[in-house]
Design a protein that fits this description.
Layout lengths: L12 E5 L6 H10 L13 E5 L10 H14 L4 E4 L2 H4 L15 H13 L2 E2 L2 E6 L2 E6 L5 H7 L6 H10 L5 H4 L22 H10 L6 E4 L5 E2 L4 E2 L3 H4 L2 E4 L4 E5 L4 E4 L21
The structure holds manganese (II) ion.
Length: about 280
């Protein structure tokens, strides 16, 4: 489906940005590539950004990333859709995992304000991109969670609505862990902030009919640093890699699952891009 950038009925184009991990300069650089003013950072008026969560930790400037996003949420509302990652959720409920870094109090207060004000979502959805519907979450929606918790709705808009309606009232269920927290066997009903792409998200959907396509961050089927797949050939054989963008696109029977976590660490990776509907 490589072609021109897709636009909605109001002429908006979209960019879905993977995990930022405290890399403010890398985020600013990608936004400038997308047409943001390199000086002021202002977004071009036709652009809507969807960021998949994990804004913070690992990199040098988590507070700067939070402040930047907070500015977009308030000065260009409707042009920035912020999803919650497990690294944000750590500050929204009793901490479920240890992490060597601690956000400053002001950043924590900002995150909690977003959650209380409905500015931090669990899911976003895009309709009819060349016939394809797409659900966007931090870690991906597992088959088990979609079936058992949500009741297996086929409509992507309904799924996003159900997930976002749980904010503030069912946080424990939204933050349901999987194998990445506490280990143990893969949980094919792991929650949308914690599902592991390799052992939970992909294996569950490989055996089922995907009701809509998905874009997620959080983890990757491919180890970009070591240049190797972390999954078996049944999944790797269905997966196309964009090494420069750090996107892994797995095509299943009725849709695809696109992983866009660039894998930033203490330093930002040199080459990565957001995922832009219509471009591939
Ligand atoms: Mn994550």
């Amino acid at each position: 489906m490589d072609g021109a950038v897709w636009r909605d009925e109001w002429g908006h184009r979209f960019a879905v940005i993977g995990d930022v991990g405290g890399q403010r300069d890398a985020l600013r650089g990608e936004l400038a590539r997308l047409g943001a003013d390199p000086e002021t950072g202002d977004l071009p008026h036709d652009l809507v950004v969807i960021q998949v969560g994990d804004l913070v930790h690992r990199g040098p400037d988590s507070a700067g990333v939070i402040a930047l996003v907070d500015r977009y949420l308030h000065t260009q509302p409707g042009q920035w859709i912020q999803l919650v990652g497990n690294h944000e959720a750590r500050y929204l409920a009793a901490p479920s995992f240890d992490w060597p870094e601690r956000l400053d109090d002001e950043s924590v207060a900002t995150l909690r304000g977003w959650w209380a004000d409905g500015l931090l979502l669990v899911a976003a959805d895009l309709h009819d991109i060349g016939g394809e519907d797409i659900l966007i979450t931090h870690a991906g929606l597992t088959e088990g969670y979609w079936r058992r918790v949500l009741g297996a709705p086929a409509d992507v808009g309904r799924v996003a609505q159900l997930l976002n309606a749980m904010i503030g009232s069912r946080d424990e269920l939204l933050f349901r862990p999987g194998q990445m927290l506490g280990g143990g066997r893969p949980n094919l009903a792991a929650g949308p902030l914690w599902a592991s792409a390799t052992t939970e998200l992909m294996p569950g959907w490989l055996e089922a009919w995907l009701p809509f396509s998905q874009v997620h961050g959080h983890s990757s089927l491919y180890d970009w640093a070591q240049d190797r797949f972390l999954v078996d050939r049944a999944i790797a054989g269905r997966t196309r890699l964009d090494l420069a963008a750090r996107h892994a696109v797995t095509t299943l029977d009725r849709g695809r699952i696109v992983g866009i976590d660039p894998g930033h660490g203490a330093t930002a990776v040199a080459s990565w891009r957001s995922w832009e509907p219509g471009l591939g």
